Amino acid sequence: MLLVLCVDLDDDLGRKTGFTTPVIGREPVEEAAIAMATADPEDSDANVIFQGLHVYDEIDARDESVEVAVVTGNEEGEVSASREIGDEVDTVLASLSTGEDVTTVVVTDGAQDESVLPVIRARVPVDGVRRVVVRQAQNLESMYYTIKQVMADPETRGTILIPLGILLLIYPLALVGALLDFPGLVIGSVSTLLGVYLISSGLGLGASLGGVATSLRRSLYAGRMTIIAYLVAIALVALGGVSGFETIESLGSTQEAVGLPIGAAAFLHGAIQWFGAAALTTSLGQLTDAYIGERLEWRYLNAPFYVVAMTVVLYAVSGFFVDQIDVAALATALTGGTVLAILSTLTFAIVESRISRDGSPRTVNVGE
């Protein structure tokens, strides 16, 4: 007697249709196949069961003794699934009321299900294995619909088409660059653009940049002072960098060699007032937005004073190293910056402790 054994290693049949396995006999197996195809038409296990029925009908048409059954495993791992299938094969063999020797043909949909062949072979001789391959998955029609489905996803479409489009632009742009006598610039620019895009995609910067753009647009519509403050600060930082390098050049014109520590001090001495102005601008912009949004706390007002104090201290210290500030002026700057920061901290701490948001005085216990 030939047993046609349909194998479903991860029990898609049981999970998707509720059929209790093993399923034995042509009519129950046909019902299981229809239920499986109805529940999930794309699942290849439905094709396995129909293939098992097809083999059964071929053997039965030759008036040979044949039976068909479906055995399943589980999702708990290959070892547990193999044991489950072994138990179900034992159940199937015990249900066969025949005095003939039983052999089997195993029907699967791939190498993973075929990993249980040793378990089946230990219980019943295996005459052959039928692997089900859907023809449509091998032709151009399937490829067309797969590509169409991938391209319908905006994220996947951007990931594939944008780098491909940049690559295709390299050749025509290189021709244009050759006509204009700067091919290297064109190719380098396109390569840089592609590299930046791939790096940003790999690091997931697209969502972050989108969030920054959204925040910037909302800030413009809300009339926030921070945007203008940041733009002014960027310009001040750039001017500070130029001023710092000019200070290094002027120092180099008076000395034969400028070492790294002295050069750094010269750059800081020339740039720190610009950097301080940039920091002061951003802090004032943020304070303005906090006041408009009714989120201003008294301690926030320390920021401009801290910026001024740090700027004075760094200007004096860097100037001392490049012989622009004497010891007396350095001591005065250090003392003044420290006193300014302390007075600012104490003043706003006292004001915040005594005045509530609605302007009513707050009682302060000495013991607290």
Automatic annotation (TrEMBL):
Q: Which organism is it from?
A: Halovivax asiaticus JCM 14624
Asked if the record carries the keyword ATP-binding, the reply is no
Q: List where the protein spans the membrane.
A: 160-180, 186-213, 225-245, 257-280, 300-321, 327-351
Give yes or no: UniProt keyword Ribosomal protein.
no
Q: Which domain of life is it from?
A: Archaea
Question: What Pfam families does the annotation carry?
Answer: DUF373 (PF04123)
Name of this protein: DUF373 family protein
* Keyword set, alphabetical order: Membrane, Transmembrane, Transmembrane helix
